[in-house]
Amino acid sequence: MKRVFAFATMLALSAAPLFASHKSETVHIGDSMMVGTTQLAPGDYKVNWVGTGPVVHITLSSGKISASADAKLATAKNDGASVMFVTHGAVKTLETINLRHATLELENPEVASR
């Protein structure tokens, strides 16, 4: 019984840092794009999220600019921070943020309804 408890404790402690320590990273956005109803200019943005998944609330901020959206959180091993977007006409909309230990897939209601 003690071994089962020790194993369960070690498993819980090893998984906790994954969600606790990686709730904030920086990502570079190379082009102007939309996040929800907010237009983001090119630049470096701090990405924060609240929750442990599968759905979390994210905020991208740089100076006075801030944008929020809901996203699906998945653990992943990525080489570094990057973004993916979709283009509809002349409008680019942020779709995915790849971070070192997680992938955030933004929920875009406008895109889903098309």
SSE blueprint:
Elements: H1 2-20, E1 24-29, E2 33-35, E3 38-40, E4 43-50, E5 55-62, E6 65-75, E7 82-88, E8 91-98, E9 102-106, H2 109-112
Antiparallel strand pairs: 1-4, 2-3, 4-5, 5-6, 6-9, 7-8, 8-9
Provide keyphrases for this structure.
single chain, two-stranded antiparallel sheet, 2 helices
Largest sheet: 7 strands, antiparallel
Helicity level: 10-25%
**Rg for CA atoms:** 17 Å
The figure for the number of domains is 1
Helix count, DSSP H or I runs of 4 or more residues: 2
Number of strands: 9
> Structural class, judged by helices and strands?
alpha+beta
- Going across the biggest sheet, name each strand in turn: 1-4-5-6-9-8-7
What is the terminal separation in angstroms?
Answer: 54 Å
> What average pLDDT do the residues reach?
82
Order of helices and strands: HEEEEEEEEEH
Shape: globular
- Which parts are unreliable, with pLDDT below 50 for 5 consecutive residues or more? 13-21
Beta content: over 45%
What does this structure look like?
The protein has helices at residues 2-20, 109-112, and strands at 24-29, 33-35, 38-40, 43-50, 55-62, 65-75, 82-88, 91-98, 102-106. A hairpin with a 3-residue loop joins strand 8 (91-98) and strand 9 (102-106). It starts with a helix and ends with a helix. 20% of the residues lie in helices and 52% in strands. It is globular, with a radius of gyration of 17 Å. The relative contact order is 0.19. A seven-stranded antiparallel beta sheet has the order 1-4-5-6-9-8-7, with no helix packed on it. A two-stranded antiparallel ribbon has the order 2-3. It has one domain (22-112). With 114 residues, it is an alpha+beta fold.
